[in-house]
Amino acid sequence: MINRIFRYSVIFILLILFQVLILNNIQISGYINPFAYILFILILPVETAGWLILILAFLAGLIVDLFMGSAGMHASASVAAAFVRPFLLRSMAPRDGYEPEAEPSMEQYGFRWFAIYTLIIVAVHHLVLFWLEVMDISNFTGIMLRMLASTLFSTVMILMLEYFRKGR
Amino acid sequence: MRNLLQFLAKHNRIFVFILLEIVALYLIFSSNNYHNTRLVKTVRRTTLAWESVISDIRNYLMIRKLNADLHAENTMLRNYIAQLIPDSDSVDIIFRLNREPDSLSGSRYEFLRAEVVNNSYVRQRNFFTLDAGKVNGVDTNMAVVSPWGVAGIIISAGDNFSVAMPVINLDFRLSAKIKTNNFFGSLSWDGSDYRYAVLNEIPQHVEINPGDTVVTTGYSAIFPEGITVGTITDFEKSGSDFYHIRLKLATDFRRIAHVYIIRDKLRLKQLETEEGFYD
What we know:
heterodimer; A: 168 residues; mainly alpha; 0% strand; B: 279 residues; alpha+beta; Thrombin, subunit H; six-stranded antiparallel barrel; six-stranded antiparallel β-barrel; 12 strands; globular
């Protein structure tokens, strides 16, 4: 248990550093900014208490907010993603349920499963994030396009990270 | 009471969710007004140290490009000085400027040098942070120009750092005019591309061409008159009597690094005299 908390803390810190120091400084074609720190919300153990996931997601979002000067937007988007997670996990459960200590990972449930899981959570996160940023529907298609492009990019980034972490 | 507690325990996830979202939304809305970003500013102080390191690294990586820009700017300035003082060579000018640092104090505007230590350009409300603050004489509502042209306006000044709102922010407004015929309009940004801005309120009887230069008017007592904003790329007649003009910004907000802050020494006097007339 202690071991696990330690492992997740290290992942948490590494992901935030990666996000703040590297990803926030590379923006592809001026529109797309990938957000890989969401991976932390994705890989928490399945049986983690709902409120704990929400609070951890809030903290992760808040730290990214502090570095981006965007008070609250990432916190809000992360909490929304964390809220959706249990519903999604339940509907995507294997036939005989999750094992007691299971963690959602590419290694355990395969690339396809993990890719769909990631895409949906990232889409929720980005949907909230992009609309909170603009709060204006005058440029609906433009913003949806930006959101979709960023979603795809973040998903690919997260899948790559997960592959290096666990997959083969 | 027990029932209530049980109810809360059973649905704790939803309550934690709502609570956290309220906190997050509170943070967003309480800091949305850019004059009022006290919380963000307090926290920013802690992250600025990091950002200085990051921007140092970035500047180091871009040093070749920056040198080229500075060199180009230097050349331009030297040519300009040579025009002003025809019978002098450059050595003489450097000598004079060094001996008389106040030789420009007769001018209405004063230039301060600053570096960009943090910058955003993919968002809808972008900002950039400069490494000069109140200690260096920076205050709100001062103009920021890059070597290429207009960059932004200082909206918040701390002791050692200040935050500026660039042209590429949905809240940015600037009075700008077409250089060839002096018709002026309102410059803003539509949030789509950090390289382009929009100029409105130019009446349709005015003749304009792609490639025309757009410069500042100086009406707002923030920017001096005649600083380049960008060049017109295309325009269309919108339903009203005005053009909808798209222009390519002279400043590349993706590589903005060295900037100058312009202090208008007569700003307060102008505003004082104008008080009550333009509201």
